[in-house]
Design a protein that fits this description.
Length: 310
């Protein structure tokens, strides 16, 4: 459950701010499947929310994608090209990058005598040492000083990248470039600092659950990525909820912080876009839109007419 969430929060933030260890490894890695040329047609979930004459489109994003996924067609293309403004989870400018980098540096490592060995059982600790050595070249002294969230995100991002997932092919990245070429406004529902804080400011037991879940999934990583991709590409609400949301609910603190609380925080902004008289195109991670705590249900509960286009 954590892998797709980490991908969502890290694509624009972590890959640009994490520091020399990960950056160097990413530059040296050769993604498996990166040269795949067979096009995969996707029909990601898309809704229109209506209020009077105003329209707002909601699209479920996948923040990193293989280069061969074809999703910018049909209702997605028509809706996006009709929009007056684009809204993302967050817009990362230079000031935001600096702020996030400072947060990461302050919160990435134990500064006292504590180590990961004190928080992981022996089996997961040995697994962590093996993966961190193989994937990052870290010795035990260095690896054990990383906080659980930081180790989890390092291992996850490297696995995502080595599986042929490309941050430059992510839905947000592609749409942001198109919006800027059209010279329409691009805004965010939260600041970069708020987004990163949702990931890192958790008690150590919650961070440890995040790391152990990541370690357990790395053995069969590709099957999880394939599951998430298939659900997203289908645009099927139930498949998306089953693949991306239901397993996350087992980790209540993470579920509340990464999904529910952020959805609730975004709602006033989304309603503001609905009332500004413009046609807005809002793109957020697909997991945020579906399920009992999803934005689509929240809007319907408030009386908005929300129609699924695909």
């Amino acid at each position: 459950m954590i892998l797709h969430v980490i991908g969502a929060l890290s694509r624009r933030l972590f890959l640009k701010t994490s520091g020399a260890i990960l950056t160097g490894l990413l530059l040296l890695s050769v993604p498996v499947g990166a040269n795949e040329t067979t096009s995969v047609k996707a029909t990601p979930a898309l809704w229109v929310v209506e209020k009077g004459d105003a329209k707002t489109y909601l699209m479920g994003s996948f923040h990193l994608l293989p280069k061969n996924y074809d999703w910018y067609h049909g209702p997605v293309r028509t809706s996006f090209e009709a929009a007056d403004e684009m809204v993302m989870e967050t817009v990362l400018d230079q000031a935001g990058m600096a702020a996030v980098q400072a947060i990461v540096m302050r919160n990435s490592s134990f500064t006292d005598a504590d180590t990961l060995k004190n928080h992981l059982d022996d089996a997961h600790y040995q697994k962590m040492l093996g993966f961190s050595k193989a994937m990052m070249g870290l010795d035990e002294a260095t690896a054990q000083k990383m906080k659980p969230w930081f180790m989890a995100i390092n291992l996850s991002v490297l696995s995502i990248m080595s599986s042929g997932m490309d941050p430059n092919s992510g839905v947000d990245k592609i749409l942001e470039a198109r919006a800027r070429s059209r010279q329409i406004a691009v805004t965010g529902l939260e600041t970069p600092t708020e987004q990163m804080s949702a990931l890192i400011h958790h008690p150590l037991p919650v961070q440890t659950a995040m790391l152990t879940d990541t370690l357990d999934k790395l053995d069969d990583f590709k099957s999880y990525i394939d599951l998430y991709l298939s659900a997203w590409a289908s645009g099927d609400n139930d498949k998306i909820a089953e693949a991306m949301v239901e397993d996350m609910e087992k980790y209540e603190a993470m579920y509340q912080a990464l999904l529910v609380q952020r959805n609730e925080n975004w709602m006033p902004g989304i309603e503001g876009y609905l009332g500004n008289g413009k046609t807005s195109f809002i793109v957020v991670g697909a997991a945020h839109l579906v399920g009992k705590d999803g934005i689509v249900k929240m809007l319907r509960d408030k009386g908005y007419n929300v129609i699924k286009l695909q």
